[in-house]
Design a protein that fits this description.
The chain has about 90 residues and is mainly beta. It is built from 1 helix and 4 strands, in the order ββββα. The protein has a domain of about 40 residues. Strands 2-1-4-3 form a 4-stranded antiparallel β-sheet, with no helix packed on it.
């Protein structure tokens, strides 16, 4: 059975109770007996480890920022260096 946290606004008490999943979310406060205690919701304690959750997870450490292509001069196009011996032979 899960343990739920309850808080009573009347007496400011906070306590835990083990209840079933189908238990009511409010009940009479067990501390003061007058207020209505409500179940406190928390973010689930789940940690995803390993690969395969997102495409960006688990990138290899060998790839660094300097290895990625730069977008600075994306408008400029550079031709690869030409082989001067083949151009000279074609011109003759």
């Amino acid at each position: 059975m899960p343990t739920y946290e309850y808080h009573c606004p009347a007496c400011k008490a906070t306590y835990d109770l083990q209840q079933s999943f189908s238990a009511e979310t409010t009940h009479t406060c067990e501390e003061c007996g007058k207020g209505i205690a409500k179940r406190v919701l928390h973010a689930p304690r789940v940690v995803f480890k390993g690969s395969g959750f997102y495409a960006t997870d688990g990138k290899s450490r060998s790839t660094s920022v300097s290895d990625t292509p730069s977008t600075e001069g994306a408008g400029k196009s550079e031709a690869p260096p030409a082989d001067s011996s083949s151009e000279a032979a074609a011109a003759s």
